Amino acid sequence: MNKSIAPAPVVAAGDVKFGNSLPLSVIAGPCQLESRAHALEVASALKEIATRLGIGLVYKTSFDKANRTSAASARGIGLDAALAIFAEIRDSVGLPVLTDVHEAEQCARAAEAVDILQIPAFLCRQTDLLLAAAATGRIVNVKKGQFLAPWDMGNVVAKITTAGNQKVLVTERGASFGYNTLVSDMRALPIMARTTGAPVIFDATHSVQQPGGKGTSSGGEREFVPVLARAAVAVGVAGVFIETHPDPDHAPSDGPNMVPLRDFEALLRTLMEFDALAKKRPGAGTI
After folding, report:
1. pLDDT tops 60 at residue 274
2. How far is residue 67 from each of residues 101, 123, 146, 222, 245, measured CA to CA in Å?
3. CATH label, 10-278, candidates 3.30.70.20, 3.40.50.1980, 3.40.50.150, 3.20.20.70
């Protein structure tokens, strides 16, 4: 273990750069990896949008949804089937890829085909998982637990950096507030930037999730995704995390809080304008 290693202020996944003072980048894709054809369809559409807008984009999808509300809910195609699809998205579509890992043993295998390993919020304090992810040398994106204060993420980041990996992102996704409800405290964004030194991501879609809100599955209020995303980008963040799907009402997981793919480009255009104003780059003031 190393001592007093600061996280990198700018983290690059291929050509996509995340930095709190850099132009906004985005992490986007469907909640669950449903099939090769579906993944390539969505990844190709997102690549076209990102190229048209000139914004950095990392493709996100999960090979296993290990924390579903009900044991009967669809979990995904599994790591074995997902690896070749992840590699194809990177090589053929040309997008960096992010996926969740839930167990230490998954990290090295997933790292063979993805650029960013994501630690789910419920697991953000699991030391062995964090150390295994750090050991791969890949970027590690840690979602802040709904039960943590933003300044508590300093200890989480330190577990990764003292293991020798400075490539860390921290993601805000709301805090538990009573039953089946999350709230987003925008103060958490600059606090996490200050106390961790890492690039900060705002998860706009999971922040409107209603955990367990539909009894055997989670609910969500997708109409508030643009509201919270605009607020976070106005504060100033390195990136936004937005789950999107061609038909979210029939998606196997997280449909109620995913943005329809047809609405994705317009939302990004707005967020880029807010970002330019927040960071006072040329072109700011066009909102």
Report:
1. yes
2. 11, 10, 14, 20, 20
3. 3.20.20.70
